[in-house]
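Anyone able to model this chain together with adenosine-5'-triphosphate?
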Amino acid sequence: MSVSLELRGLRKEFGGLVAVNDIDLAIPRGAVMGLLGPNGSGKTTVLNLISGALPLTSGEVLLNGQPVQHLAAHHRARLGIARTFQLVRLSRSLNARDNIALSLAFGRDALWGAAARERADAALATVGLPGRGNVDVGSLNYIDQKRLELARAIAAKPDILLLDEWLAGLNPTELRTGIELICALKEQGMTIILVEHIMEAIREICPRCVVMSAGMKIADGPTPDVLTDPQVVAAYLGDFEYA
Ligand SMILES: Nc1ncnc2c1ncn2[C@@H]1O[C@H](COP(=O)(O)OP(=O)(O)OP(=O)(O)O)[C@@H](O)[C@H]1O
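re: yes, here you go
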């Protein structure tokens, strides 16, 4: 399987703080990987460095073998990197369809007008919001706002989907729906990095997990092995007996 995304010596310093400490990682096309770690371990920063929301201090981000770390976020989006944010970011002055259509105009296919609206409606249907294009974003409940944000991310048909705690804040029924939705995207062959604290979801969705602690990668392997790795348990529990 060819490599879709590769990180080489990825490093981010904020002043004296090393938030991401020389991470190496290769994600094959179609793989679904969980990115775990205690609060503040650097997970969101890694997503920001991949998407281009933040400039890196050193290292490389390769998309399908091509270095992209020098490119702006919108350029990387056009090359096939899409993401959701920890806090939902939607435009409340636009309806659901136009939130997606607007981002498609700047996306990889630069779609406008009827073509963009059609693609937007298809994405809404994929995430369980069929026929809801005209609704005001403000009238959507929390899970539907999350669905809409996901629809916007997948509408551009990205190669890589970065989900930053997309399942956080959902009730148990919504969580089930959310997990099934991500599993359906996985079945379609999308390459996904899932930053998540909900272990039930990680176990169900991700065959592979990477764990970060204090900016470093401390584990990478099959999820059942990683979740029982003493070093990972220690990082989560602060139990230095195992460290
Ligand atoms: N823009 C920034 N400026 C300064 N420090 C930052 C910035 N963004 C993140 N940090 C710091 O970098 C470290 C890693 O933060 P990051 O948000 O990547 O962690 P995380 O693993 O995603 O945490 P959480 O699970 O709580 O979201 C933290 O110490 C954080 O305070």
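Residues 91-157 form one domain.
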